Task: structure prediction
Amino acid sequence: MEFDMVGIDAAIANAFRRILLAEVPTMAIEKVFIYNNTSIVQDEVLAHRLGLIPIKADPRLFEFKNTVYSKDIEWVPIGNQADVFADSCIRPVHDDILIAQLRPGQELDIIMHCVKGLGKDHAKFSPVATASYRLLPEITLLETVEGEKAERLKRCFSRGVIDLEDAHDVLFPFPVTVESTGILPPDVLVTEAIKVLMAKCQSFLSEMNSVNME
Result:
């Protein structure tokens, strides 16, 4: 997905990029219990490869692993999970990721647990393959351009380079590119990133208000 951010500072565009990389939660393999591995791939390398496989599971349906109290203990039968997540279709995003090659007589016997996490804790939780933006050249007008002159000026550039607001303000977009790993669509990831940024702003405002009251 590609879109333009218009009328914002570069710091805001970079904030979206960093949030997409490190603060939008996803599901990833966290623990790997290897009961038998007779392949040439070491257990540690195998576990690392498994952890980096994108898992198609909507993280919004799960909760973060946190401090556990006795009130949090809940019995959930394994057999019922297929019904609970029937619409989620939890599985690897891609079927063709190579983990290990086996020779005759070799085998892998593994149990894996997925948990919800953030990219800032480990790259395996990052939901994007890349998230970037470009800084366009800065154009400085020596005088106010209005009316027909403003329209002619706009036509001098490629479409989307500049736009007009209130007939005299020139706005410059930040072209943004978001490439998802396939866990969630890029438009959903951008929406979730916006929610994270809004929560950060709200937290900052709350802290400022508390300081002012004191």
